[in-house]
Amino acid sequence: QVRLVESGGGSVQAGGSLRLSCAGSGIDTRNYCLGWFRQAPGKEREGVAVITADSRSTYADSVKGRFAISKDNAENTLYLQMNSLKPEDTAVYYCAARRWGPCTVVAVSRSSYRGQGTQVTVSS
What we know:
Blueprint: E1 3-7, E2 10-13, E3 18-25, E4 33-39, E5 46-51, E6 57-59, E7 67-72, E8 77-82, E9 91-98, H1 105-108, E10 113-114, E11 118-123
Parallel strand pairs: 2-11
Antiparallel strand pairs: 1-3, 3-8, 4-5, 4-9, 5-6, 7-8, 9-10, 9-11
């Protein structure tokens, strides 16, 4: 059974940083497309970043240059380092995994394997 558990969310001021973690069980991160998506109240789900099984990463334009996705295959853990945070980054952040199909920020936001989410709040 696949289980993904996020941690590391919180409240920061604009310009600050947070690092999200996602611990996976029931999957081998070496063989999955992994990623993060977010959803703010009243807004559509938005794919943020993905990392392929062979560690190639792709980012949404809204976070490019500020966020960095990485993974530790030995620990089966996914990370999202978020720097220069803006109020518009406020959302619930979810990690997701998919075994087959395209590894894109759009696709990962529709993955059936996802965590319960962690709240990120950025104040101005």
